[in-house]
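Open question from group meeting: does this chain pack into something compact, or does most of it stay loose? Before anyone orders reagents, we agreed to write out a predicted structure and look at it together. Recording both the input and the output here so the notebook holds the full record.
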Amino acid sequence: MIKLKVIGPAVLLAAAVLAVSGVEKADFTGVWVINAQKSQLANWAKFDQTTITIEHKEPTFKFHRVSVKGGKTDESGYELTTDGVEKAKRDARMTVYSRLLWEGEVLVLQDRMVLADGREATNTVRYTLKDGGKTFVAEEKFRGPVVKYDNLWVADKKERPE
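Structure tokens returned:
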């Protein structure tokens, strides 16, 4: 009987922790190919082909995008942790402050760009998985001093050859 008294509260405590922490976090690892028909993109973002490679081992998240348009390649990427810790990256044109954090089942990228002249822009991207993890969705909202746009990036998971 003593064991039950100790185990019972321990099980209740574990259940309470799981309930408070919320749902299981998605694993975005994979190679994703943008589906132009399902996506809603600003003209500048309409590439001939875009592939996104993600390595996600909680809390580390590595994102790499390769886009091709008219035979020219455009690449970008970042590596952040999903704990909301801000990381700064500076160059001659601007400083970008980035952080990645969970909001329930959604992984949110928040970028704040401070231009050399002091003007600011923000970019928020909300990442989710749909269709049992076969579809990657990125809802992007960019707000700058001159340009404003919303993009809905929808990508299909590239199957690994057997």
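Observations to bring back to the group:
The chain has one domain: 25-157.
The chain is about 10% helix and 55% strand.
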